[in-house]
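Milestone M4 deliverable, item 7.
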Amino acid sequence: MSAVKRIGTPEADADTAVRIGYFAIVWKELRKNRVAIFGIWCIVGLCLIAIYAPLLSFNQPIFVSVDGKWSFPLFPALFNRLLFENAVDILFNLLLVLSPLYVAIYWLAKRRSGPRFAEVRFRVVGLLSVVHVIALCAALPEHVGSAENPLHRSSAVVSYADEVAALRASGKSVTVVYPPHRYGYRDTNPSESVVGPSAKHFLGTDTEGRDVFARMLFGTRISLTIGVVAVGIYVAIGVVLGALAGYYGGAIDGLISRFIEVMICFPSFFLILTLAALIEQRSIFHVMVIIGVTSWTGVARLVRAEFLKHRELEYVQAARALGIPTRRIIFAHILPNALAPVLVSATFGIASAILIESSLSFLGIGDLTVASWGETLNTGRLEGKLWLILAPGFAIFFVVTVFNLVGEGLRDALDPKLRS
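Output delivered:
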């Protein structure tokens, strides 16, 4: 018969701590920081805006009914490369379409796993991410869903207003439901160039007559993607180099450390400007890679310091004595215990990457095909229009602030000295 542990005894408390897990303890501490929780909810809201932007502002109808025959033109249009040229838009449009399926799979996995769901949660999320990447690769080569709709149009860049009027004049019953704001971020109208805010254009228009409100909504996609992908690139580089330097030491540590010091000697922003200027046809992915390959030094130094501390601890010595391969010791044993400062650095790094991309677009060397907040800000500077300055300026300030708030809260939650 197994021994019964009384509640409140040291054995029961230790067993409970093991079952709760490290990240659950960190989340418990983070929840005590109301400012950080506010930042997390703001980030969730920004992600929802990025995913569902076409349902908020777009030039295609969500629903069309002609004499009882239904269609949904907006959804095929989401994968039309004439409307959405950039792969970032296709990525988020896929999330918009497939998000109900992902939520259902996640809910079913949680229900079937029961108490064990905490152990398989990351596997489920990873599997869904792989599925989404495969779906993205399938959707990128050509537009999807070019079937005819009741208005006898494909999902190309068209205006339905004239055809709806003609159908109604012919006596047909037509019902059309548009998004709340009927403008896409690429729609141009030279006759409405640099128009101030109004009921028609909530935040006015730019020099090409493009609706600023729509560009701000879709610009959220660019900012979030830049932050996450660029940080993912330089965290991967920094973790690998820092782990090798800290674990092996000696000549390898000296070589990697000197390389880090050489990279630090270059002003990072000017290095980014130089690399961006060398690329003739810049895309948003070039900007991500440039930011990623020039910003990894801080993460590498953090990981190196953690590995220098952990490699002499008892659990690492025991793993070596058991003959566990070096690769597994580095990435399966030491690295999970050395990631706490990296998570904090990555959170702050997302805010920094968003600032860098906005700065590049402001200087005119970003990707001109995307709805960047920095480009709109530069337009406001050139035209001297307050609404073109305040809207993107406040958006950049808000996003950077909420990520910094979460970073501050995460840093406090990961510090065991501050736990109550």
